[in-house]
Specification:
The chain has 324 residues and is an alpha/beta fold. It has helices at 3-15, 18-24, 29-43, 59-87, 99-116, 129-137, 203-212, 230-236, 248-257, 287-311; strands spanning 48-50, 55-57, 91-97, 120-126, 143-147, 157-163, 167-171, 196-198, 225-226, 243-247, 261-262, 275-280. The longest helix is centred in the N-terminal third of the chain and has 29 residues, at 59-87.
Length: 324
């Protein structure tokens, strides 16, 4: 018994004519008759009553034909699904992203991806690096992009550097520090009297930020409002005393519209994060997932270079993917 024989009996059941059925399956009439007879002999059931001029389906034959149709449909579906897995033309990919990469670049990658893979579903988790690492190791996501400065060396992981963005402090135009003069130079300790908001930052990054602002160990600089949803933070800022940390690229439109102000505060460096694409070492990705990973990495690298040229300062280290 094979799929060709199943197709032969189903085709004959539809045509009830050996000549027409043979033509449809591209066989001679004698070859089709031999295939059907061989199948009937193998299963021990007469599927068709044959006379000189007519073909009829027996009652037991109808049962066999119904199940043959189901088997053909199931096998066809199976073959299509295998092909989808091989080519990546259908299915779901599961990816993770930190708040800053998600806000700045993810929408560009999704639009580009959808042009090439319109039938692929994307399940996206936006969270801090620690949560994303847990999801990755539980195989809940295929890979993630996030800051990896606090990520320990792990032989189970493949880590591909992709850049990072410069950061600054922002506030509402009505904030007391900038209300009278948005461009005035602000002393670092002036910000300590106000609510500070940020996404979850690796402790090393926050320490370097504090040092860059020339704040010392005795200055109580901490995050009062920690939230990995940058959209929520920016919605809380209007008419508030909140000072928040964000990237220059992320705030370009808001600065242009005048809905936020960048604090003119001296910093010795303004890029701290080390972004990377992180996946399980040796894990084989379906083509669509691999393609999306390359798209995200390329877009983030290109954006990091633009950001470096526009907003970087001399004491910043080279972007991580440019280091030798």
């Amino acid at each position: 018994m094979n799929i060709k024989q199943l197709n032969h009996i189903v085709t004959l059941s539809e045509m009830l004519n050996f000549s027409k059925a043979a033509e449809r399956v591209h066989l001679s009439q004698s070859a089709l008759s031999k295939s059907v007879s061989s199948f009937e002999e193998e299963i021990g059931i007469l599927i068709f009553d044959r006379s000189k001029n007519t073909v009829a389906i027996t009652p037991t034959g109808a049962f066999v034909i119904e199940h043959a149709r189901h088997l053909i449909g199931s096998l066809t579906s199976f073959n299509k699904n295998i092909e989808y897995l091989k080519t990546g033309n259908q299915g779901t990919i599961k990816v993770g992203a930190g708040p800053f990469p998600a806000k700045c670049f993810l929408h560009h990658a999704i639009r580009q991806f959808r042009e090439h893979y319109p039938k692929i579903s994307i399940d996206i988790r936006i969270d801090n690096w620690r949560s994303l690492l847990g999801l990755l190791k539980e195989r809940e996501i295929d890979y993630f992009i996030a800051d990896i400065r606090s990520l320990d060396d792990d032989p189970e992981l493949d880590i591909h550097p992709i850049g990072g963005l410069t950061l600054a402090l922002f506030c509402d135009p009505s904030h007391p520090l900038v209300r009278d003069d948005p461009a005035r130079s602000i002393r670092p300790r002036e910000i300590l009297d106000y609510t500070f908001a940020s996404v979850s930052l690796p402790s090393l990054v926050f320490s370097e930020l504090k040092h860059s602002l020339s704040l010392n160990h005795n200055d109580t600089f901490s995050v009062d409002l920690k939230c990995d949803d940058m959209g929520l933070i920016t919605r809380l800022v209007p008419q508030s005393d909140i000072i928040f940390l964000s990237s220059h690229l992320m705030m370009e439109d808001a600065l242009r519209d005048g809905t936020v102000v960048r604090l003119n505060i001296p910093m010795t460096r303004n890029r701290f994060g080390e972004w990377a694409l992180v996946q399980i070492k040796g894990q084989k990705l379906v083509p669509a997932a691999e393609s999306f990973a390359h798209m995200m990495a390329d877009i983030v690298r290109a954006g990091s270079l633009v950001d470096h040229e526009k907003y970087g300062i001399k004491r910043n280290e080279p972007l991580n993917f440019q280091r030798k």
